[in-house]
Design brief:
Layout lengths: L1 H26 L5 H18 L13 E15 L6 E8 L3 H7 L7 H12 L3 E8 L10 E4 L2 E9 L2 E9 L2 E4 L11 E14 L2 E12 L6 E11 L12 E13 L3 E13 L2 E2 L3 E26 L6 E11 L4 E11 L2 E9 L4 E9 L1
Antiparallel strand pairs: 1-8, 1-18, 2-3, 3-4, 4-7, 5-6, 8-9, 9-10, 10-11, 11-12, 12-14, 13-14, 14-15, 14-16, 16-17, 17-18
Helix pairs in contact: 3-4
């Protein structure tokens, strides 16, 4: 069991480290609504994964029943076809290179162009943004549609201060950001899971990874989750032919000061065991309401300060809610001695598969 835990942690940290580092390098090239539109599908898929795989049966309605399992749960969420591109209107902060493209018509007057560039880099503009999301085409890139603007600036020429209002023509700005997960059919995730029951029809379920340092760039990774299932047949003495449970699950994940994710789910699960305690098959189903939120915090480098030479940065912070708000789960669990295997399919805004392997008694 200890070796299994170590293997799970190593796999999750290697995959998570590579993915997070690539995402961080890419999203730092975006600001405002561009960043939100770009990562939206991953947020929804990740939240769907987090809320999956928590159960493969309802607890027995007995006062005291030993039912302990430890194993690993695998989740995979597929991406709908309509989330490979996005098109929004929102605020965007232009970098030094992009501001240079917007003001190239004023290159005959370096002082004026520099003043216009500085004015552009110091404010957000309402623009149109469209292009591939993180799972979109790698051959396309996000484009910013800059509308015609009038900008008033002051600048000095030969010791004289000049104030002028200039018109910046409309222009399409290419960000260079394209889909980095174009060929990924689904977003995978795995987590170790421990369930302990049953006391008066109640079972506790936990997910936990000890805090791990992923290096100076990414910081510390931590992940915890807790769930509870309760079978009301323990106190409602009705001849119900299946095991029923009301369930609630919550979890939290952090990656340094860069990404924070929260997810919750609650609903009703049912199951029916056929066979014996150590040799059986158990179909199960459930209806859950859920939510997930992912928060991003990073520094968006606009350019270099012309006086100090230090990077000019804008702190970007935004939250995105996952699109999944409910799911229907249908699956089957197979018990072979001390081993338990299960698999299910989840239907929602984002469909997903989960599978589990556990050792229990």
């Amino acid at each position: 069991m200890q070796r299994m835990t170590i293997l799970i942690i190593v796999i999750l940290l290697i995959v998570g480290n590579l993915f997070a580092e690539t995402l961080e390098e890419t999203i730092e090239d975006l600001s405002g609504k561009a960043a939100e539109g770009y990562v939206g599908p991953i947020v929804s898929a990740f939240g769907t994964n987090l809320n999956g795989g928590w159960y493969h049966k309802a607890p027995k309605s007995k006062f005291l029943h030993i039912d302990i399992e430890f194993g690993i749960v695998f989740m995979g969420t597929t991406f709908p076809d309509d989330v490979k591109d996005f098109d929004v209107n929102g605020n965007f902060r232009f970098t030094e290179v992009q501001a240079d493209s917007l003001t190239k018509n004023f290159s005959d007057s370096p002082e004026l162009q520099e003043a216009l560039m500085e004015a552009i880099m110091q404010q957000d503009f309402e623009v149109g943004i469209h292009g591939p999301t993180i799972i979109g085409s790698a051959d396309e890139e996000i484009v910013i549609d800059f509308p015609e603007q009038e900008i008033t600036v002051e600048y000095e020429v030969a010791g004289q201060t000049i104030e002028t209002t200039e018109t910046i023509d409309s222009l399409l700005i290419h960000t260079g950001v394209s889909g980095i997960l174009e060929d990924m059919p689904m977003l995978p995730l795995g987590a170790p899971q421990l369930s302990v029951g049953t006391l008066y029809g109640t079972k506790l379920i936990a997910r936990y990874l000890p805090p791990m340092d992923l290096g100076e760039e990414l910081g510390e990774f931590s992940y915890t989750g807790l769930g509870i299932q309760h079978n009301p047949k323990a106190w409602i003495f009705l001849p119900i032919p299946v095991d029923v449970s009301a369930s609630f699950f919550t979890q939290h994940m952090e990656l340094g000061n860069y990404i924070s994710a929260r997810a919750n789910a609650f609903g009703i699960n049912v199951s029916k065991q056929f066979g014996f305690r150590m040799l059986n098959i158990t179909p199960y189903a459930g209806m859950m309401l859920e939510n997930s939120v992912m928060e991003f915090t990073y520094d968006y480098v606009i350019g270099e300060n012309p006086i100090s030479g230090e990077p000019m940065e804008q702190n970007v912070n935004f939250e995105i809610e996952g699109e999944n708000n409910s799911r229907l789960t249908i699956g089957t669990s197979l018990r072979l001695g001390v081993f338990n295997l299960n698999a299910d399919y989840n239907i929602g805004s984002y469909n997903s598969f989960t599978a589990g392997f556990a050792v229990g008694f």
